[in-house]
Design goal:
The model is unreliable at about 1-45 (pLDDT under 50). This protein has helices at about 55-75, 80-90, 100-120, 125-155, 160-170, 175-185, 190-215, 220-230, 235-245, 250-260, 265-280, 280-285, 295-305, 310-335, 340-345, 345-370. Helix 4 crosses helix 16 (about 345-370) and helix 7 crosses helix 16. The chain is about 70% helix and about 0% strand. The protein starts with about 55 loop residues before the first helix and ends with a helix. By secondary structure, the chain is mainly alpha-helical. It contains 16 helices and no strands.
C-alpha cells in the first residue's frame, strides 16, 4: 500500500475547512433586498414562515392610527413623536415579534422614502421668492454652520462618522426625512439611523414646548419668532406645532422651514461627491451614490409643484398622505431603538444631538436678529 500523501489538488477533501472567526465588534453587516444596511445582529434573510410583510404592515397601520388619535386628543403632541415612541416601546417590551420584522422594515425604509418624495410637492420656487434675500441668507447660514459644526463636534466627541453625518443632516435640514435621504450616502447601519431619528424627534418635541416660552425673554415679535422656528426646528410637523402656539407666526415659519427643506438635495449630493473623492471605491468596495433615486424624485416633485398645474385638492391630499407615511415609517424606525444599544453607544450621540440643537437654535436666532428677517 502506498504511503504517499495526497497532493494539494487531489486531497482537498481531507483538509478541514477553517471558518472565519468574528467578534461581536467584527460581525458582518448584512443587506436586505431594499439595499439598506442592517445592524450586525439582524439576519440576512427573514426566518422561514416570517417572510410576509402583511402582519408587520397591519401592526404599523394600527400604531399609526393610534399616533394620529393621540394627536387629535392632544394637538400639542406631534404624531411623529408618538409614532417613534410606540415603536420603541414595542421592541423593548418584547412585542416586536419576528413575524412583524419584514413589515416594519418595509415601513421604515420604503414608506420613509415615499414621504420624502411627497414632501417635494409642498415646495416650489415661490417659497424661495417669498423668503427674500435676507431670509435666504439666514437659512443658508444656519444650515451650513449647523451641518459643519455638528460634524466637527461629532469628531471631537468620538461619535462614529456615519452617525455624526446623519445627526448633522437631521438637525440642519428636516429631521427624519433628511436622515432618510442621507442614509445611503452615510453608509451606516440601522442603529445609526435609529439613534439619529430618536435624537431629532426628542429635540424637536422639546422645541414645541420650550421655544414659545423663550419668545418674550428673547424679544421676538410673532414674525421674527416664526422665522426663528422655521430656521431652527427640525421636522416640518414639529415646526407647525411650535409656531402655531404663537398667533401670527405660522405662515413665516412654514415659508422659512420649507426653504430649508429645498437645500436637502444639494446637501446630499455635495456630501456624496466629497465622500467619493475622499474614499475611493477600491478601498471600500462601494461608493456612495451621488443622488439616491428617491431624492431625485423629491427634486422632480418640487419641479412639478412649481408649475402650478396641480390643483389644491391634489396637493392637500399629497400632504396628508406624506404625513401618514412619515408617521408609519417612524413606527418602523422606532422598532430599531433598542435601549441596550442606546445605553452602550448612544451617550456621546445624545450629547452631540443636544449640542447640535443648541447650535442650530443659536445660529438661527443670531441670523434673525442681525438681518431682521
Amino acid at each position: 500500500m502506498s504511503t504517499e500523501r495526497p497532493s494539494a489538488g487531489a486531497g482537498w477533501k481531507y483538509r478541514r475547512r477553517r471558518m472565519p472567526v468574528t467578534t461581536p465588534h467584527e460581525a458582518p453587516v448584512h443587506r436586505h433586498r431594499t439595499g439598506s444596511r442592517c445592524r450586525p445582529s439582524c439576519p440576512p434573510t427573514p426566518e422561514p414562515g416570517h417572510r410576509s410583510p402583511v402582519p408587520g404592515l397591519l401592526a404599523v397601520a394600527t400604531a399609526t392610527g393610534v399616533a394620529f388619535g393621540v394627536h387629535a386628543l392632544v394637538p400639542a403632541v406631534n404624531p411623529s413623536t408618538v409614532a417613534v415612541v410606540i415603536g420603541a416601546i414595542a421592541v423593548n417590551i418584547g412585542l416586536h415579534h419576528p413575524s412583524l420584522h419584514v413589515g416594519t422594515h418595509v415601513a421604515s425604509h420604503r414608506f420613509l422614502r415615499l414621504a420624502v418624495v411627497l414632501l417635494g410637492l409642498q415646495l416650489g420656487l415661490q417659497q424661495l421668492l417669498d423668503l427674500g434675500p435676507r431670509g435666504a441668507l439666514v437659512v443658508v447660514t444656519t444650515v451650513t454652520v449647523t451641518f459643519t459644526g455638528t460634524r466637527l463636534l461629532g469628531r471631537l466627541l468620538g461619535v462614529p462618522p456615519a452617525r455624526s453625518l446623519l445627526v448633522a443632516t437631521g438637525f440642519s435640514i428636516c429631521g427624519a426625512s433628511a436622515v432618510a435621504a442621507m442614509e445611503e450616502v452615510a453608509g451606516g447601519d440601522e442603529d445609526d439611523t435609529a439613534v439619529a431619528i430618536a435624537l431629532v424627534t426628542l429635540c424637536g418635541s422639546l422645541a414645541i414646548v420650550l421655544l414659545p416660552l423663550l419668545r418674550e425673554p428673547l424679544g421676538l415679535d410673532p414674525a421674527a419668532f416664526g422665522s426663528w422656528v422655521g430656521a431652527s426646528v427640525h421636522d416640518v410637523g414639529q415646526t407647525v406645532a411650535t409656531a402655531d402656539r404663537v398667533p401670527g407666526a405660522l405662515t413665516t415659519a412654514v415659508v422659512v422651514k420649507l426653504s430649508r427643506v429645498v437645500l436637502l438635495a444639494p446637501l446630499v449630493a455635495g456630501t456624496a461627491v466629497a465622500l467619493r473623492r475622499r474614499t475611493p471605491a477600491a478601498a471600500t468596495g462601494r461608493r456612495p451614490p451621488l443622488l439616491p433615486l428617491f431624492v431625485a424624485g423629491f427634486l422632480a416633485a418640487i419641479a412639478v409643484a412649481s408649475t402650478g398645474l396641480l390643483p389644491d385638492p391634489v396637493l392637500h391630499g399629497a400632504k396628508v398622505l406624506q404625513e401618514v407615511l412619515l408617521a408609519a415609517a417612524l413606527v418602523g424606525l422606532g422598532t430599531g431603538i433598542h435601549l441596550p444599544v442606546l445605553r452602550r453607544t448612544g451617550g456621546r450621540a445624545l450629547v452631540l444631538g443636544l449640542m447640535s440643537w443648541v447650535l442650530v437654535a443659536g445660529v438661527a436666532y443670531a441670523g434673525v436678529q442681525l438681518t431682521g428677517a
